Every structure is written in structure tokens, then in C-alpha cells.
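Researcher: Quick test of sequence recovery. C-alpha cells follow.
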């Protein structure tokens, strides 16, 4: 057996994955454990411990440790940037050197995380370039073996913001890169910060806000980021402040990411003063969000069409933080020559660990067998006894149900208007709740979005909730029949269904759908099917099981969220628990 531990470490969304004989057996982000800090960038010791446990091996049995970072790459581009920008470039170089020094002690840190003596871990260390890890995470998990275009784009990694590749069989051939300071991810983040979302990883809020705005500032956005004669893009000098805190920002003393400002004073001269986080959201911010999203789509389409010229295939596998833009993902299938696209569920940096491990399997260990990822459930599971104990300790009305009755019982509560926490099986890998750590509700109720925002999620009112739908029903309810098991596409609902599904229909008539196949999650499929039998619509509202924190990991965390929020009910495995006022809705014992 060949055992490979993949790591994203000391970088936002630190994570670990275990690959045994070329197959992913476990993957998890550090944010779900320990300190439970969103986008935790620290060394992923808890995630390492978890994936080794799930794989049933010890750290000393590892053959390779694959790290999704290669400081030796792109040196010429770094030197050139430092010479042109001695202050900010020098800070960037120091950050790269610091991260390179960390690599020297990784084996010892893995040994400590796994409870082994430092010299017990003999695994070979393999460095895999950041964007190569992104492409590997998608292509090596895809069903594609013939010629496929590979692509990655985000803020930055190893001094690169974009990579294009030609993929076939087990080979990934890098054909081009875009180096810093040019970054489509930095452009989007600068807009995000200017609007007042200055925390790390809040770009999805810009995408949610954009439909409320107009393209008033599209001309200005076209001046800020331009297409290049070589086919990609460049940022206009003077508007963006790169590397003031290194790639991705710095980790503060509380293990949170300190994002320094990416936009310069030239933005203020052009757009006025940036919005403070607590200030009222005005039409200006909505228009900036809309214009930013439109320019992002224009540049992305330009890049994808250029990529198809270089790799003339109908297939594309891509990843990176920008690949979480579901509006663009749907447009790719409508407006480019690519007809089949694959993205794994953790397209941001939490997915790097899997990409690095699979790259090491094929390119260092010599593995030929490919792996196809069809589901996202690679995190920890907890025992029936643990769930029962958490349910009983709540001291709320509860029922222990036969396993076969769980979907119908929960569907009945949803149909009665209750908001239900749904906790089943292994947790999802990636940022989305995909039916195992979810909060569910009836999407047909006009007040449901406001109820969940006010009582549970306590988030911005403009942000939409997602629909989970049975795969065979997608074409009935949505204009674009796309298979999106990992909730990666935003598409328009058919006009006749928009008013009937108010809780999951955004202001522009779209929904970020998750399409469920029976074979990938039979229990969740049966729940939605049962709800459809009662309501006439095989769709449920699905949002992540959390309250301004990482998605719950343990039954105890799930029960705590249930008790302190306005959740009406929770289903922990076979154990159905409700607040006292809903006791009459429990099925008979």
C-alpha cells in the first residue's frame, strides 16, 4: 500500500487529505476542529489526526507527504517584481522565504500531530506548486482521461494567480501562467474590501449583492483590469497594493487572517470613500458589486475561450478560489466551447491537499490507476451512541426512529413549516453543506428566508439560500439543465416557478442549485423525494449547519447550535429532537 498525506499548511484554509493506493479516503479542513476559526491558516494538526484516524493508519506508515507549495517555482518572476517594487516586493520575498523554512520541519510536525516520535516518520516530502495542486485536485478527481483543458485561478499562490494546462491520462502539462502582481482574484477581493466586506473569504457576498445593482461602473472596471495581447489579463498600475501582508494576508495571534488593503487611494479618487463595514449599504455599493461581477465574467470568458484555443477539447477541469463563482461557472457551460466541466467540492485552498496528494501519486509514486470523486463526504462520522447521547442530553422532546422512517418523518416536519438541522454520516469536504451537515426548510414559504436569517443565521438579508433538488427534476424547474452535485452553479429558475419558490429564488430569478443523484446520497435523496410527495415540489432549502462559525463537526456542536438558535428541530442520525412547542409533531412512538 502507498500512503500519501496531502497538506495545505500555513496558508488560508489549511487542510489535510489521505490518499491510499491512489484513492482519496479522507479529507478535512482545520477550521472544523480545535479553535474552529473560519479559514484557519495554521498547521493542520487536527485535520491530520482526523484523516489518519479515518484511514486507519499511523503517521509512521506514510510513504509521502505532499505539500501544496513549491517555493522554488517562479523565481524569475519574483526577482523581476522585487527589482521593480523594492518595498512591497521585498516583503513578498521575505514571506516566501519564511514559508520555505517551514518545510524543513514538516515531517516532525506531522509526527507530533500523529502522536509519533519525530524520527518515526520517514515519508518523503514532495512539494507541488500551488496552482498545479489546484488543477490536479480537479483533473485527477474527474472522469476525464482523454484530452482535457486544465485551469486554475485565484488570488495568488507561489507568486502565480492563474495557470493553464493540457491534461491527458495521468499527465498534466503546464502551458502558461499569469504571475503577480496581475491577479483576477485580487481584483475581485479589492472590490469586496471597498464595498465594506474586509474579512478574508467574503467574495461570495459580492456575488450575492451584484443582482441588486446596475453596471454603472463597468467602464471603470474595464480600466482596472484589462485583457492582454497574449490572451490573458493584467491589472492597471497604481490601483492595487499587492503583498503588503504576503500572499493571502498574515495570521494574527488568534490564528485569524489579517487581510491588509488591496485597493489604493486611486480608488477613493475614482469612486469616493470606501464603505465602512457597519455603514448602510447604498446603491453605490450595489452598483460596484454588479460592475465587478460583470467584469470578472468578461475576463473569465476571455480566458476560457483562449484556453480552448490552446487545448481544443470539449472537457475542462478547473479549480481555485475564483472557481467558486457559481454565476461564472454556469456561463462557462453556456458561452464557451467547453461542453463538460468538472470541479471537485473544495475548489478553494482547502482542496489543495487532495491535489498535491494525487499529483504525488501519479508523478512521484508512479501510480497509473485514476480516481473519480462522485461525492463530497470525506470528513469524520460519529457513532450512533454519540448522537443518541447528544440528543438525550438536550432534554428536549425526542424520538428514536427506525432508519427507514427517518426521511419521511423529517419531510413531514419540513412540510409543516419547521426549520430542521440535518446531521448524518460523514461530513462534507469543502465550504458547502451538501446534505449531511445542513439546515433544511420548505422553499415554498414566502417568509422562510427572513425567518432563517433572523432566527438562525443572522446574516445579511441580501444573501440567497440554495435549493437542493433531485437530479431528474432539474430541467423542470431550471432553465439550464446542469448536474451540480457540489452546488457550484447559479442558474435561472423557469419563470413559472419563481413565485412558487420564494425562499430559494434570488432577486434576479436565480438559484445556486445542488442536484442530488440517488447513488451519491441515498438518504438525502429519499428525504427530498418524501418532501416532494407531500408538497408537490422535490426541492428543499439547504444552508450550512452553523451560526457565523465553521460548519458543525460533532453531534455536540450540532446540538449546541440547535439549542441556542431558532432551529425548530434536529435530526441526529436516527434521533429526532424538537423544541417543546413542536412536540405534538413528533411521530408516534
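Model:
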Amino acid at each position: 500500500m502507498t500512503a500519501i498525506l496531502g497538506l495545505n499548511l500555513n496558508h488560508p484554509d489549511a487542510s489535510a487529505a489521505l490518499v491510499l493506493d491512489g484513492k482519496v479516503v479522507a479529507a478535512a479542513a482545520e477550521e472544523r476542529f480545535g479553535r474552529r476559526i473560519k479559514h484557519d491558516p495554521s498547521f493542520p494538526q487536527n485535520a491530520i489526526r482526523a484523516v489518519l484516524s479515518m484511514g486507519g493508519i499511523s503517521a509512521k506508515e506514510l510513504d509521502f507527504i505532499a505539500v501544496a507549495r513549491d517555493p522554488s517555482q517562479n523565481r524569475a518572476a519574483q526577482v523581476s517584481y522585487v527589482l521593480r517594487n523594492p518595498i512591497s516586493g521585498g516583503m513578498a520575498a521575505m514571506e516566501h522565504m519564511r514559508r520555505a523554512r517551514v518545510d524543513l520541519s514538516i515531517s516532525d510536525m506531522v509526527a507530533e500531530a500523529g502522536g509519533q516520535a519525530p524520527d518515526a516518520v520517514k515519508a518523503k516530502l514532495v512539494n507541488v506548486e500551488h496552482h498545479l495542486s489546484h488543477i490536479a485536485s480537479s483533473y485527477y478527481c474527474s472522469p476525464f482521461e482523454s484530452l482535457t483543458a486544465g485551469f486554475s485561478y485565484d488570488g495568488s499562490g507561489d507568486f502565480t494567480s492563474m495557470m493553464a494546462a493540457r491534461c491527458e491520462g495521468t499527465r498534466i502539462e503546464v502551458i502558461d501562467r499569469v504571475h503577480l502582481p496581475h491577479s483576477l482574484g485580487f481584483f475581485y477581493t479589492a472590490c469586496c474590501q471597498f464595498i465594506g466586506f474586509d474579512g478574508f473569504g467574503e467574495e461570495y457576498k459580492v456575488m450575492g449583492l451584484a443582482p441588486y445593482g446596475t453596471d454603472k461602473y463597468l467602464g471603470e472596471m474595464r480600466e482596472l483590469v484589462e485583457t492582454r495581447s497574449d490572451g490573458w489579463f493584467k491589472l492597471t498600475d497604481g490601483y492595487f497594493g499587492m503583498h503588503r501582508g504576503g500572499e493571502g494576508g498574515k495570521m494574527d495571534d488568534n490564528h485569524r487572517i489579517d487581510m491588509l488593503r488591496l485597493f489604493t487611494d486611486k480608488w477613493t479618487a475614482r469612486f469616493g470613500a470606501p464603505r465602512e463595514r457597519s455603514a448602510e449599504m447604498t446603491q453605490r455599493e450595489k452598483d460596484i458589486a454588479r460592475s465587478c461581477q460583470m467584469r470578472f465574467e468578461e475576463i473569465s470568458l476571455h480566458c476560457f475561450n483562449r484556453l480552448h484555443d490552446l487545448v481544443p477539447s470539449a472537457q475542462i477541469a478547473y479549480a481555485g478560489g475564483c472557481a467558486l463563482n457559481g454565476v461564472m461557472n454556469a456561463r462557462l457551460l453556456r458561452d464557451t466551447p467547453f461542453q463538460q466541466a468538472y470541479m471537485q467540492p473544495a475548489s478553494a485552498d482547502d482542496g489543495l491537499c487532495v491535489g498535491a496528494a494525487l499529483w504525488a501519486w501519479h508523478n512521484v509514486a508512479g501510480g497509473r490507476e485514476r480516481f473519480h470523486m462522485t461525492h463530497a463526504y470525506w470528513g469524520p462520522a460519529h457513532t450512533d451512541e454519540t448522537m443518541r447521547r447528544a440528543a438525550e442530553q438536550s432534554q428536549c422532546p425526542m424520538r428514536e426512529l427506525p432508519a427507514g422512517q427517518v426521511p419521511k418523518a423529517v419531510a413531514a416536519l419540513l412540510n409543516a413549516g419547521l426549520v430542521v438541522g440535518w446531521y448524518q454520516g460523514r461530513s462534507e469536504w469543502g465550504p458547502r453543506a451538501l446534505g449531511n451537515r445542513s439546515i433544511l426548510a420548505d422553499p415554498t414559504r414566502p417568509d422562510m428566508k427572513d425567518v432563517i436569517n433572523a432566527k438562525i443565521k443572522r446574516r445579511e438579508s441580501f444573501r440567497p439560500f440554495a435549493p437542493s433538488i433531485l437530479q431528474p427534476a432539474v430541467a423542470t424547474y431550471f432553465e439550464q439543465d446542469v448536474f451540480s452535485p457540489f452546488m457550484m452553479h447559479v442558474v435561472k429558475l423557469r419563470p413559472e416557478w419563481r413565485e412558487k419558490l420564494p425562499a430559494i429564488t434570488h432577486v434576479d430569478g436565480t438559484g445556486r442549485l445542488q442536484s442530488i443523484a440517488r447513488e451519491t446520497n441515498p438518504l438525502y435523496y429519499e428525504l427530498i423525494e418524501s418532501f416532494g410527495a407531500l408538497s408537490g415540489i422535490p426541492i428543499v432549502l439547504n444552508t450550512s449547519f452553523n451560526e457565523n462559525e465553521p460548519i458543525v463537526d460533532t453531534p455536540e456542536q450540532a446540538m449546541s447550535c440547535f439549542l441556542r438558535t431558532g432551529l425548530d428541530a434536529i435530526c441526529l442520525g436516527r434521533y429526532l429532537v424538537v423544541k417543546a412547542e413542536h412536540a405534538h409533531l413528533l411521530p408516534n412512538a
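The CA atoms of residues 156 and 247 lie 6 Å apart.
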